[in-house]
Amino acid sequence: MKIKGRVWKYGDDVNTDVIFPGKYTYTLTDPKEMAKVALEDLDADFAEKVQKNDIIIGGKNFGCGSSREQAVSCLVYAGVGAIISKSYARIFFRNCINFGLPALNASDAVDGIENGEIIEIDTESGKISCKAGVYSFPPLPKEVVGIFDAGGLIPYTKKQLGIKT
Fold it and tell me: From CA 87, how far away is CA 107, in angstroms rounded?
């Protein structure tokens, strides 16, 4: 899978309360409404300006905090194509897989990529291309690639079981 998009770069410890503000946890359930508040408390322009396949770059411990699934789903509904970070909170990382949002570990790339630039990710070759050059990330297991290609764990599982959607 190839993903090409504009970079939104943030720092370390971006937590789930700023990805999907806690005040909306029990009030917003419509995906379109959830997308409108993505990263509201960190970057007020994000939800209005993000475009399909844009890429978030984070530092260490991206997605720390509570385990709420809305932190990933609001990014998916907003159109985010992937996240590249130095490290992730464990539950956030798993939720990314469940929702079909590639969450890649690439510390060198994080340091070399600039906010606002257009980059390309090739999940099959494990390469990230940007102005500073080409960076590698660990290859993804074929099952994880299958989940991403299917659009998440539920569509992947249905496909594996032969269940029509």
Answer: 8
Gap between the terminal Cα atoms of the chain: 22
Query: What domain count does the chain have?
Result: 1
Compute the distance between CA of residue 70 and CA of residue 18 in angstroms, rounded to an integer. 11
Query: Minimal CA–CA distance to 40: which of 14, 64, 60?
Result: 14
In which residue ranges of the chain is pLDDT below 50? none
Domain assignment of residue 11, given as a range: 2-161
Count each helix (H run) and each strand (E run) in the chain, helices first: 8, 7
3-state secondary structure (DSSP) of residue 76: helix
Identify the CATH number of the domain in which residue 88 sits. Answer: 3.20.19.10
Task: With beta carbons less than 8 A apart as the criterion, state whether 125 and 134 touch.
Answer: no
Q: Which residue in the block uniquely carries the two structure tokens 């709420």?
A: 68
